[in-house]
Amino acid sequence: MGTEAQGGQKTAGANKVAPATGKLGVMVVGLGAVATTFIAGVEAVRRGLAKPIGSLTQMGTIRLGKRTDNTSPLIKDFAPLADLNDLVFTGWDIFEDNVYESAAHAQVLDKDLVEQLKPYLETIKPMPAVFDQYYVKRLHGTHVKKGKNKRDLADQVVADIRAFKKTVDRVVMIWCASTEIFIKPTAVHQSIEAFEKGLENDDIAISPSQIYAYAALSEGVPFANGAPNLTVDTPAMVELSKKNAAPICGKDFKTGQTMMKTVLAPAFKARMLGVSGWFSTNILGNRDGEVLDDPESFKTKEESKLGSLDYIFQPDLYPTLYKDLYHKIRINYYPPRGDQKEAWDNIDIFGWLGYPMQIKVNFLCRDSILAAPIALDLVLFMDLAKRTPSLRSIGIQEWLSFYLKSPQSAPGLYPEHDLFIQSMKLKNTLRHIMGADLITHLGLEYYD
Ligand SMILES: NC(=O)c1ccc[n+]([C@@H]2O[C@H](COP(=O)([O-])OP(=O)(O)OC[C@H]3O[C@@H](n4cnc5c(N)ncnc54)[C@H](O)[C@@H]3O)[C@@H](O)[C@H]2O)c1
């Protein structure tokens, strides 16, 4: 008989994960609202001024063994994660503002807190960015790199990475920059060789985010993507990630409305309740909202937000319940709200004998407050993946789907969107790499 704690499935030994010694360098692309809330937040926590609420790596526990064992250490005590005191930040932006100025501009954190952190935050100054307005129509950047072609720009990012590597022990890169226009994969994305030719030829399907990602992966640096851009979601980047043991994961931080969606939809499906319509609308007034006001950037976000329901509901398997679902998403730029986004969902469901019902969700959230802990966890877990022999060379870290609106998975494998399955997958991956028993939730042994 199987046990709730499945000893038979353990494979890796604890000694195999390299320890998190020394400094972890965090290279952040885009020092806007999310990035500055993340960096300032880490500093506030380091100084004991605030708590890292929303961060699984800092606050979460992991159960080991049977429920009767009462063993639930903190995740950060169980797996060798980098300590917050060992994080060193740098980054790029198309504006010259340092992190203090950018945090003040974003107006996410209280002025008092930002002022207290000023001496530290103003030491982080952006390096000139790789940018082209063709890919983000609403921004006009001046602090940008110049190069003879895209290959030259990639080489300049590689030089930035190498210089930073000399000052720290390990490096992770995370994209917290704007949403680019919608780009479909083309021939240039099918192999490393084709991509490298495309860099030489200034191929239009290669956007700045792909140039940063290419530079990171070429240098063996893990790359996480907070935006819905195509970036590493291509065969070329998967190949490069595997080749250089540089982990990648899905894209677009799963923060507010989509997080709620991937909690509610599995509940309806678990109870076999039908859904005929799901209308989601948002108002937000930060720079992200302004960028998404451009139809081409919105299209990238829309595709990312639309995916989850189709995969969770499996309409092919449950045509009676979900085949005719009408799913609509709107994002409206509304400056008075700043970062304090408001999201409404109207869900038309139906139950026994087809009788209709409605659910309304009104989430008054703070976009960057929700995104910052996700950025932190992704950075720490990507660094852990890089130090784990059984993870670093597999490319896509599907176990980090928990954090992302568009999970990435192996070719032919449908992505898992259900937040609770994702959470189980994440924790079982940690148990697995640390040589602990996996948890199956079977639990018959308690009744023997
Ligand atoms: N906050 C959330 O809840 C959330 C959720 C999911 C995804 N996101 C995504 O995270 C990203 C950041 O959001 P934000 O609110 O911080 O936006 P923001 O506009 O405040 O910050 C983005 C920053 O990136 C910079 N930038 C743009 N292109 C760049 C480039 N090529 N290189 C370097 N810097 C560049 C901009 O100048 C800006 O400072 C957006 O793409 C957004 O869609 C946010």
Spatial shape = globular
Helix coverage percent: 25-40%
Which spans have pLDDT < 50 for at least 5 consecutive residues? 8-14
Order of helices and strands: EEHHHEHHEHEHHEHEHEHHHEEEHHEHE
Q: Biggest sheet, open or closed, and with what strands and sense?
A: 7 strands, mixed
- The total beta strand count reads 13
Mean pLDDT: 93
CA-CA gap between termini: 11 Å
Determine the strand fraction and express it as a percent band.
15-25%
C-alpha Rg (nearest Å): 22 Å
Please identify the structural class as seen in this structure.
alpha/beta
Q: Tell me the number of helical segments per DSSP (H or I, 4 or more residues long).
A: 16
User: Largest sheet, order of strands side by side?
Assistant: 4-3-2-5-6-7-12
The set of bound ligands, ions and cofactors reads: nicotinamide-adenine-dinucleotide
SSE order and pairing:
Blueprint: E1 5-6, E2 24-29, H1 33-46, H2 56-59, H3 75-78, E3 87-93, H4 99-106, H5 111-121, E4 127-128, H6 150-165, E5 170-175, H7 192-200, H8 208-218, E6 223-225, H9 235-243, E7 248-253, H10 257-270, E8 274-284, H11 287-292, H12 295-313, H13 319-322, E9 326-333, E10 342-350, E11 356-364, H14 367-386, H15 389-392, E12 404-406, H16 419-433, E13 438-439
Parallel strand pairs: 2-3, 2-5, 3-4, 5-6, 6-7, 8-9
Antiparallel strand pairs: 1-13, 7-12, 8-10, 10-11
Helix pairs in contact: 1-4, 1-5, 1-14, 4-5, 6-7, 6-8, 7-9, 10-12
The structure holds nicotinamide-adenine-dinucleotide.
